[in-house]
Amino acid sequence: MRAALAGIGSTPQRYPVSKTAHRGGPGPRTEGFAPGQAGGVYDRIGWLQDTQLVFEAPALARLTADGRLSEAHYPVEIGCGTGRFARDLLTKVCGPQCRYVGLDVSPRMCRIATARLSRWSARARVMQVDGTLPLPLPAAGADRVAAAFVVDLLPTEYARQLLADTQRVLAPGGLLCLASLVQGSTRASRAFSSAWSILAERAPALLGGCRPVVLPVLGGRTHMLGRPASPGHG
Q1: DSSP one-letter string for 146-161
Q2: 115-148: per-residue pLDDT in tens?
Q3: Could you give the CA distance from residue 180 to residue 225 in angstroms, rounded to a whole number?
């Protein structure tokens, strides 16, 4: 299932890294982190990202099942972080035919992921990117593109352009699989989502830049998995 998204041209688009972002600070923000800012924040987070597993695991398990990642031969992960999800794909989900590529804007995350996946270096590659679009990937070269808790930390327009470019990367019949924080559907979860959104505006680095988003607006007809914001997740 492939999303039909409009609004992206062929000219590479850059989102510059500010000096503040290089120091790891988020800088001024109205909606989401630019890629360079996200890289600075996640350089600071590093291995601590793995502490979020207890909150992310149910969504990742469903993403793996619904996205039929066990059938994937050429998966690409946007925002590979520490490589934890990639390791699980290589050891528990995908067969020996799998050739994995992970992308991240954080130099520290790329180093951590590369070290974690070194055992599978013959079929797993981690690439540091700077947020420039189109992505440095060949057309129609992937049968899965996964992004777990990535679009909820990016500016909406950049996220739309990023997801549009994944359609170039996907082979015919490939799947774009997303997991993200979304607005709650119950009274309690809506109240928590609202509080989370307010805090995300005022102190985004405390939450790793994540805030609840509306996935259908970002992803068109893409297969998507939303997860209401809950305590402890960022």
Answers
A1: EEES-GGGS-HHHHHH
A2: 999 999 999 999 999 999 999 999 999 999 999 9
A3: 7
